[in-house]
Amino acid sequence: RTLRAAARGVCVLAVDGLSLDVAESAFRHAHVRPLRSTFPSTSTTAWLTAVTGTGPGVHGAVGMVHRAPGADCVTHLVTGETYAFGPSRTPGKALLHAGPTLFDRAADSGRPALAIGAELERLTGPWVNALLHGARIVPSPAAAAPLSTDPVSVAERTVREVEAVLAHAFDTPPLVWAYVNLDDHIHRSGYDARLREALLLLDTAAARWADAGWSVLAHADHGQVEVTPSQDLAEAWARLDAPAHCRMPGGGAGRVRWLHPLPGHEETVAAALRDTLGDHALVLTPDELHARGLLSATPVVRARIGEVVALATSPRFPVPDPGAAWEHGSVSDAETLVPLAAWNPAPQPALP
After folding, report:
1. pLDDT at 349 over 70
2. How crowded is residue 254: how many other Cβ atoms within 10 Å of its Cβ?
3. Does domain 228-323 have CATH number 3.40.210?
4. What single string gives the DSSP state of each residue in 196-235?
5. β-strand partners of 326
6. Amino acid 350: pLDDT
7. pLDDT at 6
8. In sequence order, what are the residues at sequence separation of 6 or more whose Cβ sits closer than 8 angstroms to the Cβ of residue 21?
9. In the chain, which segments carry CATH 3.40.720.10?
10. pLDDT tens figures, 245-255
């Protein structure tokens, strides 16, 4: 609706890893309202949901690492790497079933749809192809060089590349979507002064674009919480996530992880995991996730997720990256409440 009503066009800043409360304090020129992220609250799931309007029960991006239906291995959706106990024999069926994106819909209505993001340019595989389907990728001058994770550098690069696109003359108002990777920095340093400086740069630029007649939006995929992973819990997880108990390595996303028990061992593994993690996690089945309204147990989900799922309830939860100081994936408000910010939004047409 905003694109149809926008005088010059719409610019969307897709800010990875930004929590609602931090955005509210940093985006001083914007109107900010809350959005609730997906489950798991992770990039692969949330961004694909944001551009398609469908959930993981439809598009199939269930977390960061999951199995393809019928596979005896798991696949990392961003890197394409596979992990198995021993040589993998069965690659499985399609990882994703993503449908039309907002880029497809813009193009179908005669609007240019452009995507900016040097980090995404470097990716190959089904996830990024599904995410950017229908968009014209604007090549980044930075894509061939090592990319900085310093948030101020990321913000400055994004502003330069967006402004180069906005300076073009368009026959019809375009959709300009820019990926802003603040997530890598937040994982290591949290929402520190450097991160907040980057957000102020984005806010100033967005206000400037709005003053020039653009409708500017920003939203995030998830927030993050501070973590202190327990080495003892990590070792206990590794003992269960092994061929003696599971038919393939576990999957998940940060503070949500699952196991693929050997047939007939599901209840035994679930009980052992509950005893091991105690108050640090909630251990559920896919049916229980469905009953809680977290994840629809569709055939798409059941074919990809493990039968035993652990949701972090404590900073001590054994996340896959023991070097992370901040992480996400679970269901706390800090992880799941994200901003939808608007600078100079176009007047909304009345709904029928």
Report:
1. no
2. 28
3. no
4. HHHHHHHHHHHHHHHHTT-EEEEEES---EE----HHHHH
5. 226
6. 56
7. 85
8. 334, 337
9. 2-58+96-226+333-343
10. 999 999 999 99
